[in-house]
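User: Fold this; tokens only.

Assistant: Input:
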Amino acid sequence: QVQLVESGGGLVQPGGSLRLSCAASGSMFSIGIMGWYRQAPEKQRELVARITSGGSTIYADSVKGRFTISRDNAKNTVYLQMNSLKPEDTAVYYCNLHKGADFWGQGTQVTVSS
């Protein structure tokens, strides 16, 4: 069974940075597509960024140029570096592993506010 544990969320001022981490247990990590999603209050969950096992990435238009997704297969960990944060980035961020089925972490809150 796969378990995903996120960390790194918190409160940050507009223009600041945060780095989210997601540690995965199980053997599927290195061959799965990893992604970060977010869900703001009263909004649907949306894809933020995704990275394949080979390192190919895609980003939501709203975060291009500000966020960077990366993965360390040796550590079974995926990261999301978030720079130039805006109040509209405020949401619960979820880690996702897609390999046949979808596996989700418990989420970590990111709040961008002055």
